[in-house]
Amino acid sequence: MKRKHLELIEDCFVILGILFFSGALARLGIFPRIFISLIRWVIAFSSLFLMVLRFKYLAYKFRRDIFLIAAIFLVFISFNWSDFPDQTFHRVKSEFFPMTSFGFYLATSFDIHRLLKKISFALAIGLVLSWVTAIAVPSIGQASGKFAGAFVGVYSNKNQSSAYMVLTALSLILASFRYSSQKWFGTHQHIWLRYLGLSAFVFVFLTTSGTGLVLSMLLVFNLFLYSRFRWKGKITILVLDFATTIFGSLAIIIIGNWQELLTGLGKDPTLTGRTVFWEIAIQKIVEDRPFFGFGRGAFWAVGSPYPQEISRAFGASIYGGGYVPAHAHNGFIELGLDIGLIGLGLFSASFLMAWIRSFRQGYSPTELENLFPLGFMIFFTINNLTESLTVHLNHLFWPLYIAIAFNAGYVSRRYQSSSETKRCVARISE
After folding, report:
1. Average pLDDT over residues 36-50
2. Is residue 404 within 8 Å of 410, Cβ to Cβ?
3. What are phi and psi for residue 327, nearest 5 degrees?
4. Cβ-contact 180, 189 below 8 angstroms
């Protein structure tokens, strides 16, 4: 088989994986559930098989982030100490294993530049499908009930839709800075990518998600700051980036709980909104399972007393007395519940390294594609403050985090000819 045919097959596999983990295939409703389940296992075991073929390279990659490997190992074996081992094993098998397997495949197959190219193309497909369903098939593409009229496209809800659209805009706009002579309908490819990226920002607005809007503005501001001043070599830009990320995070938390705070006027505001999740969850981690946690998903399992305890604590909040939560609405707390303070500490070490490497790659040659790891880390950090986007359920963000954690900090060889580039390479060398 010719190389170009193999590349085409690989492109189709990556696109299929991204559309599956983003939830787009299931949301369209045109495929039977058994077919969706089959796709899950095809992706999981195909990724595993391809990793085995690249075992030596995989071993090299593993050495770059042993903390993440250790945290992943704890999740895989967490059914051993779970009070609900069957439910934990099912979650690990059907959710965590496919995501992690696909993430390792991405990490061992593509550098940052090729990864950006692949995901921008796949997410562009999701963007086009979202516009089509939102306008032509509102029963699929628009929310109903409390948020009726909000655009969701091919994603499950408005918050998830806004998260994917922000990621889509980020990847398309950064990918557009690589000039291409190829034309689509008489217009250069990179121009189309920018138009699509801008339309993704418009879609974020139509989701009515405050989190998505704040995150969009924060990403644009942060990346502009970094790209504008990264050559100054001053610590100021790092301080500004961290400051805007922190203030943006606070804004996200306030917006995410604003309606609940208004509803709770005259009451203890700590008993309204997501703060109820966090207070009780943190307390239970420390008091009941501080070292290795409850096991993947066991805290929220059917039969666990903790969700009902949180539901009672809500009282007459905006969610209603009958609301029973299914996750922590915070990716970092969710990890703490699953694998305890030891596991969370391991992930935190990996997380910090990924941030440092992303900053360093942003200082690499003038290609704006090198800002993608930093943009993703900002996105991943802030979204996980109000949503569980680490190991909860199937989604695209965990596989992408694995790929970024193992690959951020590399500079492609084609940039290493200029003296300016060599200085950058020296900065990021380990």
Report:
1. 94
2. no
3. -160, 175
4. yes
pTM: 0.86
Whether 372 and 112 have beta carbons less than 8 Å apart is answered as yes
- In the numeric block, which tokens belong to residue 408? 């951020």
Q: What angle do CA 343, 94, 287 make, to 5 degrees?
A: 30
Work out the burial of residue 113: count CB atoms within 10 Å of its CB; fewer than 13 is exposed, 13-18 middle, 19 or more buried.
Answer: buried
- Alpha carbon dihedral 252, 256, 262, 267, in 10-degree steps, equals -100
DSSP state of 391: S
- Yes or no: say if 327 and 386 are a contact pair by the CB < 8 Å rule: no
Cβ atoms within 10 Å, residue 104: 24
Q: Which of 199, 202, 198 is nearest to 212 (CA)?
A: 202
Check: CB of residue 150 under 8 Å from CB of residue 207: yes
Q: How many angstroms separate the first and last alpha carbons of the chain?
A: 38
Give the type of residue at 96: F
- DSSP conformation letters of 117-169: HHHHHHHHHHHHHHHHHHHH-HHHHB--GGGTT-B-TTSSSHHHHHHHHHHHH
- Residues 6+ away with beta carbon under 8 Å from 406: 61, 64, 65, 68, 107, 108
Phi, psi for 300 (deg, rounded to 5):
-105, 10
Evaluate if residue 264 carries a pLDDT over 50: no
- 188 CB burial (10 A radius; 0-12, 13-18, 19+): middle
Model confidence pLDDT, tens digit, residues 312-334: 876 544 444 567 788 888 999 99
State whether residue 18 is helix, strand or coil. helix
d(CA 10, CA 355): 29
* Tokens at 157, concatenated: 């809800």
- The first and second tokens of residue 212, run together, are 């998505």
Identify the residue whose tokens are 């900065």.
Answer: 427
Can you give the pLDDT at residue 329?
Answer: 86
Name the packing angle between helices 397-407 and 97-109 (round to 10°): 40
d(CA 363, CA 377): 15
Q: What is the DSSP string of 160-205?
A: HHHHHHHHHHHHHHHHTTS----EETTEEHHHHHHHHHHHHHHHHH
Would you call 184 helix, strand, or coil by DSSP? strand
- 19, 122 in Cβ contact below 8 A? yes
Q: Amino acid identity, residue 145?
A: G
